[in-house]
Design brief:
With 158 residues, this protein is of the alpha/beta class. It has helices at 8-37, 46-71, 125-130, and strands at residues 4-7, 72-75, 91-96, 102-108, 119-121, 138-143, 146-156. α1 packs antiparallel against α2. The radius of gyration is 21 Å and the shape is elongated. It has three helices and seven strands.
C-alpha cells in the first residue's frame, strides 16, 4: 500500500466529504429507497433503481475516501525548511515568458488536484517541471500544448 502525499487542507476536505456522505447523503438515499419501495413493483420502478444506483456510487466514494485517508502521508508545508525551493505543497508564482501572463499554482496530491482552482498534481508535467526548482529560476516545461517557458517569481509555503 503506497503512501500518497496530501496537504493538510486536502485531508481535511476529504474528511468533511466523508462525514457529509455518511451522515447526510447515506440517510437521504436510504429514505429515497424506502419511499420508492412503498410504490410497489420494483422491476419497473425507475425511482427505486435510480436510488439504488446512487447508493452504489455513494458507498463507492466512501470506500475510496477511506482508502485515500488510510494511505495519506500528510505534508504540512508550513513546518518545512524551504528557502525558495519548489516542494510538494508550496504555492509557485510564475510568469509565462511567452505571453507575460502571471499565474500561480499550488502543488498537491492526486486527489486534491483541480486545475480550475490552480491546484496541480505534483506528478503532472507542470508539477514535475517545477519541483526542485528555486525562486528566480527560468523553467521550460513540456505540456500537452507544447513547450512553455516560465520564470519562478516567488514560492510560498502557506
Amino acid at each position: 500500500m503506497d503512501k500518497e502525499p496530501i496537504t493538510l487542507n486536502g485531508l481535511n476536505k476529504l474528511k468533511e466529504e466523508l462525514v457529509f456522505l455518511k451522515e447526510k447523503k447515506r440517510p437521504e438515499i436510504v429514505a429515497a429507497i424506502a419511499e420508492a419501495r412503498s410504490h410497489g413493483d420494483l422491476k419497473e420502478n425507475a425511482e427505486y433503481h435510480a436510488a439504488k444506483e446512487e447508493q452504489s456510487h455513494n458507498e463507492g466514494r466512501i470506500t475510496q475516501i477511506n482508502d485515500i485517508i488510510a494511505r495519506a502521508n500528510v505534508i504540512d508545508v508550513t513546518k518545512l525548511n524551504n528557502e525558495g525551493k519548489v516542494i510538494f505543497g508550496s504555492t509557485v508564482y510564475l510568469e509565462d515568458l511567452d505571453t507575460g501572463e502571471k499565474i500561480n499554482y499550488k502543488i498537491v496530491g492526486r486527489d486534491e488536484a483541480d486545475l480550475k482552482q490552480k491546484l496541480i498534481f505534483f506528478q503532472s508535467p507542470i508539477g514535475k517541471g517545477l519541483i526542485g526548482k528555486n525562486k528566480s529560476d527560468l523553467v521550460e516545461i513540456n505540456t500537452p500544448s507544447g513547450a512553455k517557458n516560465f520564470e519562478i517569481k516567488n514560492v510560498e509555503y502557506i
